[in-house]
Amino acid sequence: MRKRNPHQPDPDGILLIDKPQEWTSHDAVAKIRNHFQLNKVGHGGTLDPNATGLIAILIGRGTKLSAKVMGGDKTYVGEILFGVETNSQDTDGDVTVEKDPSGITEEQLLAEMKKARGDQMQMPPMVSAIKKDGVPLYKLARKGQEIERDPRFIHVYKFALLDFTPPRATVEVKCTKGTYVRTIAHDLGQRLGCGACLSQLRRTQSGDFDLSNAWSLDEVLTWDRNQLAAHLIPISQI
């Protein structure tokens, strides 16, 4: 690990990266901080480790824009697996229920997806970073604890079916911040009576930022500080 120089000013701005699978958002921040010997680095919205896609890395004075960046709407492309429920609502968790989903038709699926759009209250999953008395829920879930959670108000602008190849469906979701796409998948499976979980997730948009303008983490880690500064979105443009 390189030692950071507090007297060397950080560049200021936002870097868009395409987070690879199995990396946490914190991992990505740490890699960039250490590689460029930065003092102030953050991110504008967490992705689950096995989710991929757009993360805004906030650097220098860009870290002051965290609330603004995180507050934007999000768009995802995901894959839902029907007939399987897990304790995390995605395929990373332990299977709790298995049912035969072969009776689902595309017409039934589209009808239930339509009901999932608009204003609603969503119950956050136990396997989440939401804190209860200062403790993340996922740590309690690992101990087998299930505690009462408060539902959150969310809005789903778009819930579109891109492909249906049973028992999997590829969907696009545009939603407000704080929405759990894996909970949308779980709830959809409940309404269809066969259960479901999220098997893949990729964030394509966050606020005004788009994945098409993001850099791979591997490429970013070949740059020097001057190259990093040249690729940052200036804070004056946010």
**CA-atom Rg in angstroms:** 19 Å
Mean pLDDT: 92
Main beta sheet: strand number and arrangement? 10 strands, mixed
CATH secondary-structure class of the largest domain: Alpha Beta
Distance between the termini: 31 Å
Produce a short descriptive summary:
With 238 residues, the chain is of the alpha+beta class. It is built from seven helices and 14 strands.
Task: Explain this structure.
Helices cover 24% and strands 34% of the residues. By secondary structure, it is of the alpha+beta class. It is globular. The two termini are 31 Å apart. The chain folds into 2 domains: 89 residues, Pseudouridine synthase; 133 residues, Pseudouridine synthase. The model has no long low-confidence stretch (mean pLDDT 92). Strands 1, 2, 3, 4, 7, 10, 11, 12, 13 and 14 form a 10-stranded mixed β-sheet that branches. A hairpin with a 2-residue loop joins strand 12 and strand 13.
